[in-house]
């Protein structure tokens, strides 16, 4: 039992439930990982999701909550653990923090990847010294994604395992994390506008005559202007280049995990296909890979034993 009273099995079950409820593509892909790896991946996902939800449903004390989570995790990882937080806060986050702390220690994940992730989350919090809700260039956006996405890939890498030196696989793992994140940004432009955030580089948009006002008009009317369609086509090409950059790194992973990662990459990249198929109607509909395509992608990677599970997922 953890110092806070959480049973280890209960902590990991909690993380699995979070992953199953919110991360359909990732949860599906984890089914091809070994039983020993799955709980660790669920823990990493649950930590990121918990923090992301705190930021997205922000209150006036969001920055303080992020600081508290960081302190709790640092305490969890410290050789001589302290209790700096209130009892209520420890209880609220205990399952996720216990599981992710155990995963960090078990797999030797560099804690710096978690501090980098939390700093990127602070960039989403109004009033934080790091806050920003617009990005002038792709280089600026990639600095944000270094923590929000690339760090996630680097957290996962020790869990997945590599056939050679881990450092050789790190650039591809970071690129795949960024590719997933940019796909999210392209799909969720409307949702992000509702939070007064734009995660598409202003320079790339301006090159096609797109500005904040045009984006807001599209969101208000549900229509995608021809200029925005051209900008989205350009950014989708940029996104696909990230997937291509990441692809060789999959062969550096343990053979057992390669099908799971290929499946996750193919399914996520498929969202870009759906955006194109809808004629870039990002404000009128949420791009989702249809079930028949998920089955086709899965059938090319998953063994027959996993297909009944895939067929039941919605």
TrEMBL record:
GO molecular function, one term: geranylgeranyl diphosphate synthase activity
Keywords attached to this entry: Transferase
Gene Ontology terms: biological process: carotenoid biosynthetic process
InterPro entries in the record: Isoprenoid_synthase_dom_sf, Squ/phyt_synthse, Squalene/phytoene_synthase_CS, Trans_IPPS_bact-type, Trans_IPPS_HH
Pfam entry (one): SQS_PSY
Pathway noted in the entry: Carotenoid biosynthesis; phytoene biosynthesis
Ligase found in the keyword field: no
Protein name as annotated: Phytoene synthase
Protein species of origin: Nocardia wallacei
């Amino acid at each position: 039992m953890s110092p806070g009273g959480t049973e280890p099995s209960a902590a990991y079950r909690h993380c699995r439930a979070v992953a199953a409820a919110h991360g359909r593509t990732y949860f599906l892909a984890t089914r091809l990982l070994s039983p020993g790896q799955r709980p660790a991946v669920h823990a990493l996902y649950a930590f990121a999701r918990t923090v992301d939800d705190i930021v997205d449903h922000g209150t006036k004390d969001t920055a303080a909550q992020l600081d508290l989570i960081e302190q709790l995790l640092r305490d969890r990882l410290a050789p001589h653990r302290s209790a700096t937080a209130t009892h209520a806060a420890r209880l609220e986050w205990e399952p996720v923090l216990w599981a992710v702390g155990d995963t960090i220690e078990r797999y030797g994940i560099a804690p710096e990847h978690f501090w980098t992730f939390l700093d990127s989350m602070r960039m989403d919090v109004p009033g934080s010294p790091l806050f920003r809700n617009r990005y002038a260039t792709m280089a600026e956006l990639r600095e944000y994604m270094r923590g929000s996405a690339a760090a996630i890939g680097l957290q996962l890498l020790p869990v997945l395992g590599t056939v050679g030196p881990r450092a050789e696989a790190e650039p591809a793992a970071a690129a795949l994390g960024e590719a997933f994140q940019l796909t999210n940004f392209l799909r969720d432009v409307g949702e992000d506008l509702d939070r007064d955030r734009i995660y598409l580089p202003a320079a790339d948009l301006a090159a096609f005559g797109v500005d904040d006002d045009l984006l807001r008009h599209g969101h208000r009317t549900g229509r995608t202007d021809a200029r925005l369609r051209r900008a989205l086509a350009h950014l989708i090409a940029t996104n696909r280049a990230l997937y291509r950059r990441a692809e060789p790194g999959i062969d550096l992973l343990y053979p057992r995990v390669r099908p799971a990662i290929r499946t996750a990459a193919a399914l996520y990249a498929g969202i870009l296909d759906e955006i194109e198929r809808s004629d870039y109607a990002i404000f009128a509909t949420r791009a989702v890979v249809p079930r028949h395509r998920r089955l086709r992608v899965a059938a090319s990677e998953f063994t027959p034993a996993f297909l009944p599970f895939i067929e039941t997922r919605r």
